[in-house]
Specification:
This protein is about 45% helix and about 15% strand. It is an alpha/beta fold and about 190 residues long. The protein has a single domain, classed as Rossmann fold. It is elongated, with a radius of gyration of 22 Å. The N and C termini lie far apart (about 65 Å).
Length: about 190
């Protein structure tokens, strides 16, 4: 007979393998195979607020283990080329509609973070992107510096980029993950 502190698992007496099997089957039967409909609807609504498909949102959420609190775009993903700093209309519409999440950007030269912020009200903060010659520690400090300046946990921010180097930002900054810009901005896949 199980006493206080017993976890309810099978006993260690003879026939233990059968009891272990039966116990695991009973545990499996108690756990639902599908997500409850209410939770699914809430997550679908959250995916729409973030401007992404439910499938993409669910994949990132499963990987990071938490909700996405911010989106960190590279200037390449936003199609900011040159020194002007303005996001093209197609990308700007999508970024502007993101709700309940910080919208951040790491900007490659010749654009400057100040010019990008001045030209795009949709972004909450921007900073200089890590340089090709930066060390891993410098890359980490640059990515986490921007995220932490907005009082966000690194693991709650998704990096959206458009270059192989930018995929490393997610690992260096301990972010929720990396998403290619063509997967976020569907029209770029064209």
């Amino acid at each position: 007979m199980a006493g206080i502190g017993h976890n309810g698992g099978p006993s260690m007496e003879h026939g233990r393998l059968w009891r272990t099997h039966a116990w695991r089957q009973a545990q499996k039967a108690l756990m639902p195979e599908a997500i409850p409909m209410l939770v699914l609807r809430m997550r679908m609504r959250r995916a729409a607020e973030l401007g992404m498909t439910y499938r993409t949102y669910a994949k990132v959420r499963q990987y990071s283990g938490q909700d996405i609190l911010g989106l960190l775009f590279s200037s390449n993903a936003l199609r900011i080329f040159g020194s002007g700093g303005e996001i093209p209309e197609a990308e700007a519409q999508i970024v502007t509609q993101v709700a309940a999440a910080a919208r951040l950007s790491l900007v490659h030269p010749p654009a400057t973070p100040q010019a990008v912020l001045a030209a795009n009200r949709a972004l909450a903060a921007a900073d200089r992107a890590p340089h090709l010659s930066d060390s891993w520690a410098q890359m980490r400090d640059r990515v986490q510096g921007l995220i932490h300046s907005q009082r966000l946990p690194s693991s709650g921010v998704l990096v959206i980029g458009d270059a192989p180097l930018e995929a490393d930002w997610a690992a260096a900054g301990r972010a929720a993950g990396y998403l290619p810009s063509a997967e976020y901005f569907a029209h770029q896949a064209g």
